[in-house]
Amino acid sequence: MTYDINNKIVLVTGANRGIGKAIVESFLEHGAKKVYAAVRNLETAIPLVEKYSDKVIPVYVDLADPQSITAAAQVAQDVEIVVNNAGVFNPTSLLDENAIASLEFQLNINVYGLIRIAQAFAPILKANGGGVFAQLNSVVSIKTFSNFATYSASKAASYSITQTLRELLSEQGTIVLSIHPGPIATDMGDAAGLTEIAEPPTLVAEAMIAALKAGDFHVFPDTMAKQIGGAYQSFAENVVEANMSES
């Protein structure tokens, strides 16, 4: 199923910087009608409002705060595309003393936050004709790196949830995207020590738009992601995206 973002209303979590900001800007430049910039600090969305005027509406969302998500859903009743971009990165070895605490922290945002967003906005997308639910996962959701072990585990879980959402939301006509960036030039990329090989966040936004036009589920936007995605393609098509019975 293909989808055109022109004249559509979008909500993006973590919209104030990095990949989220690039998604807001690219979607507007490709014809989106309005974007709800969902952020934890409303002041951080001011530059986007100054640039795009009333096409950007800041809303308070903290993925760790279910009430904030419910309140945002009440405001954004007209939304047609939801992009859950916000997430946390806390690199921890499994043998570190704080490994479990680190994993719990990342699961709360990267996995439980995803579920909270999906539960709040799936009914709205259904009421507005189906639309799109897009989840920012990562290449580490497919290939674990030991120095990012707890982050990799949280993103593997969010990828699993995204596959479930693809199946569940298809019943209401909602398209689901699973986006798997590699090293991207963001604060998170810097924290991961990937600055030298990181690529622009606009690649992610443009790849999402292209995937919607092509009807793709998986999105591999950058050089490393394309390499991993190419190797993963057969499994993705024949297992992950296939209609398989549990019996």
UniProtKB/TrEMBL annotation:
| Record has Oxidoreductase as a keyword | yes
- Work out whether the entry's keyword set contains Translocase: no
What UniProt keywords apply to this chain's record, in alphabetical order? Oxidoreductase
Q: Which Pfam families match?
A: adh_short
Q: What's the superkingdom here?
A: Bacteria
Q: Which InterPro entries does the entry mention?
A: NAD(P)-bd_dom_sf, Sc_DH/Rdtase_CS, SDR_fam
Q: Which family does it belong to?
A: Belongs to the short-chain dehydrogenases/reductases (SDR) family.
Q: Which PANTHER family has this protein been placed in?
A: NADPH-DEPENDENT 1-ACYLDIHYDROXYACETONE PHOSPHATE REDUCTASE
Question: What's this protein's name?
Answer: SDR family oxidoreductase
Q: Source taxonomy lineage?
A: Bacteria, Bacillati, Cyanobacteriota, Cyanophyceae, Nostocales
